[in-house]
Amino acid sequence: MEIYAIGIDLGKIxxxxxxxxxEGNVVVRKKCSRNQLLTYTANLPVKLIxxxxxxxxxxxxxxLRAQGHEVRLMPAQYVKPYVKTNKSDYLDAEAIxxxxxxxxxxxxxxKTEEQLDLQAVHRVRERWVMRxxxxxxxxxxxxxxRGFPLPQGRKHLEQALPLFLAESDASLSASxxxxxxxxxxxxxxxxxxxxxxxxxxxxQAREQESCERLTEIPGIGxxxxxxxxxxxGNGAAFRQGRELAAWIGLVPREHSTGDKQKLxxxxxxxxxxLRRLLVQGARAILQRRTSQSPGLKNWLTQxxxxxxxxxxxxxxxxxxxRMAWAVLVKGExxxxxxxxxxx
Length: 343
What we know:
7 strands, Nucleotidyltransferase, domain 5, 12% strand, globular, single chain, 3 domains, alpha/beta, two-stranded antiparallel sheet
């Protein structure tokens, strides 16, 4: 019995495995735990092992590669069309085994432990940032209900809170002042946690040579640089910078047919966190475009003269993604765009 490809449907405890031969016939169906799976595959001759990219898949992918297997991870949405009938774990595993053999399938690189550590730091930090924003908005709303409107922005709230708590205003009840004190304490704790994560990110950006090269690109700081490395590693999974920009969702959606080409707004697919960071960096560059290199400043000036500012920001974010890909893949330092000579 020759097994050519194996599809594994992952679970927290129980995994389902389906093996196909070269003709695509099912030759193995197996249900096992994590330890039983690694024991079964330890001495199993197989050409390909496929899994959906999900929680735990990168760890298992590294463990199977250590056994000498060729392991490929795939986005779950690309596997779904290969499910022939009703859903079950065995049918999902069979679909994975078929999908992993497709020559045009798009695969997800297996992340290293260092990448997963960086990714965890960014995810926790982002949760704290969102929680802090929600807390600031809640405090502003509660104060507005009592006739104290505050301007938008966290710094205005942080400046006003000590004044509200220092003054014994009769319009604020004792219970509300206690509540306001606790919310101020929570805000300070969140600020401290975020600052600690920022320090960790800055240290990682200094220690990793690829991150240090990325921070030389305008609009890309330690947060964006480490997020890029955590997500794409050395960028070798993408053949060109445009593929990375498309994966981040910074290229137009297309709805064309026949001879009619119709381009819509950006797709907003893929990694929304990276897209947001790059757009924020592009916005910062546009605000300070006079201090940029001559080539980049000239490009921004020409583009701003013929289109809306938001379009310019997205186009610049797309350009930053391509620059980052080139710096990572080629292993070179950032070189500012040259000023085009007019003929």
